[in-house]
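#lab-general

N.A. 3:47 PM
ok so I finally got the sequence cleaned up, no stray characters, all 934 residues accounted for. can someone with queue access submit it? mine expired

B.Y. 3:52 PM
send it over

N.A. 3:53 PM
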Amino acid sequence: MDRRTGPIYGSEDIAAEVAALEARHGQDRDRLRRELIACLSAGLVKGRAAVEEKLLAEQDGLACARRLCALMDGVVRAVYGVVVRHFYRVDNPSTGERLAVVATGGYGRGTMAPGSDVDLLFLLPYKKTAWSESVVEAMLYILWDLKLKVGHATRSVDDCLREARADMTIRTALLETRYLTGEKALYEDFLTRFDAEIVEGTAQAFVEAKLAERDARISQRGASRYLVEPNVKEGKGGLRDLNTLFWIAKYVYRVRDQRQLVKAGLFTQAEYKLFHRCEEFLWRVRCHMHFATGRAEERLSFDLQRLIAARIGYGAHGGLSAVERFMKRYFLVAKDVGDLTAIVCAALEARQEKPRAMLDRFVRRLRGSRRSALEVAGFAIENNRITVVDEEVFLRDPVNLIRLFWLADRHNRAIHPDASRLATRSLKLIDRAVREDQEANRLFLDILTSRNAPEVVLRRMNEVGVLGRFVPDFGRIVAMMQFNMYHHYTVDEHLLRSVGVLAEIEAGRLEAEHPLANSIIGGIRHRRVLYVALFLHDIAKGRDEDHSIAGARVARRLGRRFGLDEGEIDTLAWLVENHLVMSTVAQSRDLADPRTIADFAALVQTMERLKLLLILTVCDIKAVGPGVWNGWKGELLRTLYYETELVLSGGHSGVGQAERVRRAQAALREALPDWTDAAFEAYAGRHYPAYWLKVELPRRVKHARFLAAAEARGDTTATAVETDGFRGVTELTVLAPDHPRLLAIITGACASAGGNIVDAQIFTTTDGLALDTIFVSRAFVEDEDELRRGERIARAIERALKSEVRIADLVDSRRPSSGRERMRAFHVPPEVALDNKLSQRHTVIEVSCLDRPGLLYDLTTALGKLNLNIGSAHIATFGEKAVDVFYVTDLTGAKIVSGSRQAAIRRTLMEALRKEDDGLPPGRGEAARTKASP
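B.Y. 4:20 PM
back already:
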């Protein structure tokens, strides 16, 4: 092996050391075995340390993977040699006493990560014999004693061929085999027969199976390659995708080496170099991950990202942190892997090895022929895809780089990968003249605002590179990750998904989930402004200034370029600058406070802006990631919308507060047919308007029966438990006399019983009782198990409310010590802010910090010790960041105006934030809740 790329300590060193052992202890098999294991264990430690040192110095992932593989080759060969020479020596072997040791799977490719399995095939000429069985068993026991993870199979050549015919996974493993030691002629016979009897004539079946397997794997692990905690091995755009491409190429084109892919015509030389660069980078990341963790860790989690970025050598630059620069590189590589996949699929289609697909399954095929328009522009339809008629089409008219995607949208056709490859090679044609071209911008705006599948077409434009080239501001955020636990995708992927959500709402496919947005979208006047605003709302992420303010400037410039008029541009810039406001107000302000609504209405000013901002907010939250949107957020946004509508309409809204309360009460009355009118009227009078506006009907029904049952028993303290499989939570309903420390007692009891609060609704009745609905994250799959856990948490709450336990001690005993490294990856500076302008009656305290278990208990306890009455609390968690807002007064019901008193509050709360705040894992997910005041 070339010493420049080989390990400092490797297979040759192992062979020499084992030979010396055999010379010394060859006559004492027991001692030889012990010494062999000790020698190989030390050799593996020494060799891996040398390989890691080389990796840190050279930063070559493929070289690292090959060195580790060569090191393992030396171990396997040494073990085989000792076994057949000293343990089961046969001087004159029969035809059945032959054995080849073969590497399969990833090990067979000649690459290994530090934590990879050692996949071995013990290849026999016929069935097992006593000798072969003894040799295999002896080898495996030694390898297991070396603490290696060994995947193994013992088969004859006929067995291998029979299994390969029946099982595509086995066939794939046998496709990538590599001779290690033993009878080489036996292995070569296997190769010849495998090629002739298995591969010959079965290419299409293999391709379809591998692509279906890839689709299933990606669907299981997240359909996007832009997940912010990607799986480097199995995720979309990861190593397994590259493996799949080579399996297919090897099977279809009958190549043995990656370099033969160019000669076979599958890749150009430049594309092969891209394949090699992607493979090297992914192996580099994977090897660093295994070395850093000491295990086969494949998920690039937040805590690892910062560590791996440092190991590779990334630093902060251009407004991005080191970890954000590293992850941007990762996602660009994942994008390149996607491009290579498209190239291979195109080649397979040309060979009729792969079925064809449409652009989007939701879009109906357009009627009528437009082939003449295609031909005039230099395009055609081939294999049901838009393609180019010649390689000069973009050179003749660079605007065709935009027109290609416009035609794909209009014809509901996917783009032929040959056309995509030509577009990628022609990106330099998109210069300032093309960006300023009126027709190019008209075509782009048509794509962005299409009623067909704008997200699909925009994503293809992004993957090809046209989108970032045509809109350079978008190019700046391509593959940019946001290093936090809130956003699930890169910035560009989030923007494209938000456009897709808008298209789905407009098409009526999300009516049940977003009823208000669905009902108002048809009446907005600035439809195309809304699409452009969603496309641009995070366009300025990664800059030194507030991305909303910087984004508004970008929006004005691009709005003019896209052809919007001045009125549309003003609305566009306003939406981008204020795209976070409605979500912030809904989740962290008291919507029952008139000042909240008045201030928000003053900002919005018109019903058109209110409608646009509501829809934009829904799309923005929905596109953050799975599970971020929930019904509670929908209720908050709808409440804010209707309250603001009432102000903007001068109090003459068709759906005013009084009417909505009346409707809510009427709906509940209809749902309680067994109640008398008198009983219902008495019950309805126990709730303030905020309750009727913020609680959905099914929960109102449960509350009514829960309170009635408690009253019948004469109880003022009661709990109820119910599971919610759809939302993945357990619902705890608590009834108790209201008092200042009630909130702290409930949150503390939940924390002490291991219940992580993810959502809550808290209200006070007119007769002085608190009606709290707490949602905790689910821990068990089966409802029966989860109900038992929920009842345990409910009992803890009841005991705490009855002063049977000391909450502080219980909370402290349950603060976990695990998961610290994950949270140390993030830094959220603790802040406490007091504001007397946000409410007419209350001082508003806003606390932001790194989330942790028991945080809410610590804060509410501190507020209680400060003798503050909590009028309402609004608890939100954005990934690792907690933002808790409390509306408080002093014991006389007045605001906190004294400077010294405000300073004492800040000091006390900051002390509470520092408690146990050294990197504990988060104890809550997204949460928002409100406690109504009399």
